[in-house]
Amino acid sequence: MWLHFLGTGSSFPTTRRGVSALALRHDDGPVWLFDCGEGTQIQFQKTSVTSQKITAIFISHLHGDHLFGLPGLLCTISSQLGEEGEAGKKVVDIYGPKGINKFVNTALHISCSPLIYSFRVHELVPIASQYPEDWEWGSEGDETVPAISHLKQLSGSTITPVADSQGNLHWPLMNNDRWCVQAGWIHHRVPTFGFVLIEKDRPGTLDSTKLTSLGVKLGPMCGELKAGRSVVIGSGRTVRPEEVLGPSIPGRTLVILGDTNDASPLAHLVSECDVLVHEATHGDALAEKAVLYGHSTPLRAVAFAQQIQAKTLLLNHFSQRYHPADSQGHNKEESVELLADEGRQAASGSSLNVMCADDMFVFDIPPRSRAQSSK
């Protein structure tokens, strides 16, 4: 799997950096997009990732620099798919805070934008404490679905929080044979969510020597065993998967956050983490300003990474005051190199790997060793 950072700036796009958009490209092809700031469709064109492969979009919160690019991207996907092929079978699932459905439908409806594929919108219902005191809509139902929904919209879902035995909350988003995806709330100026992606353990490799010795012929039976199901061979003997499979391949855990000055409310969802994507809008010298506006610094990001035992911390969502690391004519204090240094200094003495992810940075998520205990 690979993380492609399409936009890593805050507030507004510039000629040197786009705003929030992160694509997760899976080993088997599909792409999941996290946030979709203005100009994301342009950023896609600068990478090897195709937006036509998107199957799920996760919006962390409803600030413009995280979703203004969504209507345009949905339309671009439609135009690139063409009228033939698999477009009729394609469905994109969109997850976001309550209000995202109205935003998507209003933009597509008023602009008379047709789509040739289907989409579903799943709204996460925030808890009361996530709303600021001056919130003018949203907590009392003003964001009701428009009277006219898009012709290609399928029925979505309203996702309410689930509490564990300790009263900790999570929002269940997806649970299939490969992934369990949950959202947790994090502190920001508007209702905001972070996403926890837990890859399930995969079956180990079939041992051809054991298969032969047991009399299992190559073919459909091998597929059944690989899928974890027992088979009955010609002699009448039942062969169990554990007899012919090597050690399972442990799944990975990713945590991808939106804007926040404190992500601790979702820490209970993570026992160990391979990769954490965490914002660092300002340097540590501007910590007071960062917190005032609901943002973080490298020091705060490292503290949370260590709380959830992350192996790698990827910083993003930089104030446009910080130039990309490869910019010419700027000293370290004016670039993200400052933020990277502050993060590494905060993590010194630990095994945490800290990196700044500027636009077009690609991170190859390493697989876990079979020797690692599975979750």
Overall helicity: 10-25%
**How many strands in all?**
18
| Low-confidence spans | none
Helix and strand content put the structural class at alpha/beta
The separation of the N and C termini measures 19 Å
The strands making up the biggest β-sheet line up spatially as 7-6-5-4-3-2-1-18
The arrangement of helices and strands along the chain is EEEHEHHEHEEEEEEHHEEHEEHHEHEE
| Arithmetic mean pLDDT | 90
The whole-angstrom Rg is 22 Å
Q: How many DSSP H or I helices?
A: 10
* Percentage beta strand: 25-35%
Major beta-sheet overview: 8 strands, mixed
Shape descriptor reads: globular
Describe the structure.
This protein is α/β, with parallel strands linked by helices and 375 residues long. It is built from ten helices and 18 strands. The strands form three sheets. It has an eight-stranded mixed sheet. An eight-stranded mixed sheet has the order 8-9-10-11-14-15-16-17, with helices on one face. The chain has a two-stranded antiparallel sheet with strand order 12-13. A hairpin with a 5-residue loop joins β8 (162-163) and β9 (169-175). α9 (298-307) packs across α10.
Question: Which helices and strands, and how do they pair?
Answer:
Blueprint: E1 2-7, E2 21-25, E3 31-36, H1 40-44, E4 54-58, H2 64-67, H3 70-81, E5 91-97, H4 100-110, E6 118-124, E7 153-159, E8 162-163, E9 169-175, E10 179-186, E11 192-199, H5 208-214, H6 220-226, E12 231-232, E13 238-239, H7 241-244, E14 253-256, E15 273-279, H8 287-292, H9 298-307, E16 310-316, H10 336-346, E17 353-356, E18 362-364
Parallel strand pairs: 3-4, 4-5, 5-6, 6-7, 14-15, 15-16, 16-17
Antiparallel strand pairs: 1-2, 1-18, 2-3, 8-9, 9-10, 10-11, 11-14, 12-13
Helix pairs in contact: 9-10
